[in-house]
Amino acid sequence: MPYQTLQVTTRDAVTYITLNRPERLNSFDLILGEELYTVLRDVHGDPLIRAVVLKGTGKGFCGGGDVKEMHAAADKPRFLRDLTRAIHRCVIEIRSMEKPVIAAVNGAAFGAGLSLALACDLVVAVKDAKMSTAFIGIGLAPGCGTQLFTNTVGYHKACEYILTSKTFTAEEGCRLGIVNKAVDAPNLDAAVEEYADAFRQLPPLAVGKAKMLINKSMSNSPIDHLELESQTAAWSAGSQDFAEGVSAFVEKRKPTFKGK
């Protein structure tokens, strides 16, 4: 279906979602928030999709919330409440779907745009991409991303970057643990495809459950998490993919996983 703010294609079991408001640095308005959530929800429920790539058109990945719309809003608190909720639904959908989501950060990722990248499971970015939590710089308390950022970089680094709206490059993001791989701009698509191709071959049920376990590990107690790991491993042992995986191991051949 056609979208006002997105371009969506699927190729070989990977869905590519491109934010398409280049004249506003792909910033979030309510329409983009609603359309992105709809696509993510649909992908979440599609068993044929093994991975998702999130991209941006033009010079940036996502400039955050649309500041011009914030300025124009007659009821600014109401507008920010609606906008942050729209962004949160997208973040929750990304983190809860049992499929890997790859952020292809081609340029600026500010505010909610950085939060969107942080919500993804893998982040590949061009080396000189500028990033910032940004909220404080316009007099706004952060509307999203503080938990993801703090869990990744630690308390004191989070204070340094969030409280001062410090801008940093993707290469610095690698050192902070926010970015998995920083590449030269011409190599961005190829670097993203390395991950996408891997997920095309890997067992999607096991990958999805592993993502779930990683997310649950952030809030579970050690004992509860060990039990969840045991239950999840036992569940996956009943899959055709597990039978194929152990057979291929014993037979010394490459497995073919079907997501069953």
Question: Gist?
Answer:
The protein is α/β, with parallel strands linked by helices.
Characterization of the model:
This protein has 260 residues and is of the alpha/beta class. The protein has 2 domains: 6-200, 2-enoyl-CoA Hydratase, Chain A, domain 1; 203-251. The protein contains 11 helices and 10 strands. The protein has helices at 30-44, 67-72, 76-96, 112-119, 146-153, 155-163, 170-176, 188-201, 204-217, 222-236, 240-251; strands at 6-11, 14-19, 51-56, 60-62, 101-105, 108-110, 122-126, 130-132, 168-169, 181-183. The strands form 2 sheets. Strands 1-2-3-5-7-10 form a 6-stranded mixed sheet, with helices on both faces. It has a 4-stranded mixed sheet with strand order 4-6-8-9. Strand 1 and strand 2 (14-19) form a beta hairpin. Helix 5 (146-153) crosses helix 6. The longest helix has 21 residues, at 76-96. The chain is globular.
List keywords for this structure.
260 residues, alpha/beta, 2 domains, 4-stranded mixed sheet, 11 helices, globular
The appropriate CATH architecture of the largest domain is Alpha-Beta Complex
CATH homology-level superfamily of the largest domain: 2-enoyl-CoA Hydratase, Chain A, domain 1
Radius of gyration: 19 Å
CATH class of the largest domain: Alpha Beta
Shape: globular
Task: Please trace the helix and strand order, writing H or E for each element.
Answer: EEHEEHHEEHEEHHEHEHHHH
* Count of separate DSSP helical elements: 11
> How much of the polypeptide forms β-strand, as a percent range?
15-25%
Distance between the terminal alpha carbons, to the nearest Å? 28 Å
Could you tell me the CATH topology label of the largest domain.
2-enoyl-CoA Hydratase, Chain A, domain 1
Helical residue percent? 40-55%
Number of separate structural domains: 2
The main sheet orders its strands as: 1-2-3-5-7-10
Unreliable stretches (pLDDT < 50, length at least 5) are none
